[in-house]
Specification:
single chain
Length: about 130
């Protein structure tokens, strides 16, 4: 599964951005998809995950209420709509999934060890910079 994240940019604190995750040659609705952020000099961390087909949404505490993950089935995209952005949201945002359509993939998105094991397909990432 090949993924491509896009939509990043420079935004002022309090602003909004919408990231997109596109897939080639597969129907993304059949896959759980996670979003992750890697800040400069820091480890990659979980942000959100949407489960396959039923599209259950999961968020880490720091973004709950500010970010929304969703699907556009017609366009074969997964979005991450980010609002009330703060400087600590700065980083490269990656979307990821697996290659076997594991239905419980989102169970593993928070834990870095499980994430490395089960999220096997990663996009190239898109840079989000929140700064005045």
């Amino acid at each position: 599964v090949q993924l491509q994240a896009s939509g990043g940019g420079l935004v002022q604190p309090g602003g909004s951005l919408r990231l997109s995750c596109a897939a080639s040659a597969v129907t993304l609705d059949n896959y759980s998809v996670g979003w992750f952020r890697q800040a400069p000099g820091k480890e990659r961390v979980a942000v959100s995950c949407i489960s396959a087909r039923v599209s259950t949404e999961l968020y880490v505490d720091s973004v709950r209420g500010r970010f929304t993950i969703s699907r556009d089935k017609a366009k074969n995209l997964v979005y991450l709509e980010m609002g009330s952005l703060q400087p600590e949201d700065t980083g490269i945002y990656y979307c990821a999934t697996d290659h076997i359509q594991r239905p419980d993939l989102c169970r593993y998105y928070r834990n870095s060890s499980y994430r490395a094991r089960y999220f096997t397909s990663w996009g190239q990432g898109t840079l989000v910079t929140v700064s005045s």
